[in-house]
Amino acid sequence: MYKLLACTCAVRARGASGRWQQRAAMSDRAQVLFDGIRQGDRAALARGITLVESTRADHQQQARELVSACVGLERKRRTLRIGLTGTPGVGKSTFIEAFGMLLLSKGHRVSVLAVDPSSSRSGGSILGDKTRMQDLSVADGAYVRPSPSRGSLGGVARNTLDSIILTEASGYDICLVETVGVGQSETMVSDMVDMFVLLLQPGSGDELQGVKRGIMELADLVVINKADGALAIPAKLTRTEIMNALHLMVPRRNSWTPKVVRASAVTGFNLERVWETVELYFAKLQESGEWDGLRAAQQEKWMWREVTNLLLTRLNRDPKVRKFALTLQADVVNGVVPPGIAAEQIVDKFLTSYR
Asked: How far apart are CA 45 and CA 43, in angstroms?
């Protein structure tokens, strides 16, 4: 058995050498939540995640304080971040519940961030993943949190990475991120997790055609779910097809070749093997030193994504820019001004307002 979780991962605030350092003081609300989160209080964790998901300006400030404090915590062991995606109907939630219960039996604390598609009218979750993980959601040592994607590209909510940080600060050593489902921009989830797992189902002749090549290339592990009963034989054929397809792709890790495992979340078939494969993957990453570089790349990519999000948010909140944009919008609709030129003028207007 690979003792990958025994390694020490000290996460400290930066020193005073001009780099980031933790705030000396937090607001009362952020401090109360921080104290509760680091003590493992699930209610405090839930309120903290609600805070980071809020779009109110005052809440966003408090959320930044909270996340900064959680990042500065020293941890005894490195956490695992695992993303899971798959075609609709593949049984992602069922698999996560069965797999999560297995991890709990091994002494791990598991958090599940299930990102649901959002209602276009209310903005809330419409699938209710938590209701489909009835055992895991009430189990000791587990925390299940469905979050609306609110139209976020990539199948993950904008603040999912902050939510991961909060769950880790609360003592959960394995975080499973379930995404909306395979789509054009689903690959964004791979930029916030250490391992990317693709779930497929057997017996579908169009299985490979229904999966974007880019997502297949990002998969560190492919699990053929529902490999039981009448689908046991088709699952073997699907595994062979997937393995042949992966041989034509360049592995994204120097120390790892993607694996394909048959499993059944309903019967529990091969779930142990899935976990052994996950352990082997992280052991290889740790031995090669790729893990540290992977986490650094995650932070860099999400920093620039957040820059883009913050610029767009502040642009929309500027009353002068919004008024100017509405005027240009009418000209674009009437065909007077091309969209590209209008966008450039809006950005220029926003930038000049800060000079």
From this structure: 5
The average confidence (pLDDT) of the chain is: 82
State how far the Cα of 82 lies from the Cα of 327, in Å rounded to an integer: 45
d(CA 183, CA 259): 22
Which of 165-179, 181-195, 216-230 has the lowest average pLDDT?
A: 181-195
Q: Give me the pLDDT at residue 208, please.
A: 56
pTM of the shown model: 0.82
Residue 215 and residue 239 in contact, taking contact as beta carbons nearer than 8 Å? no
**The predicted structure's pLDDT at residue 122:** 43
Angle, alpha carbons 29-32-38 (nearest 5°):
135
Burial of 4 (0-12, 13-18, 19+ CB in 10 A): buried
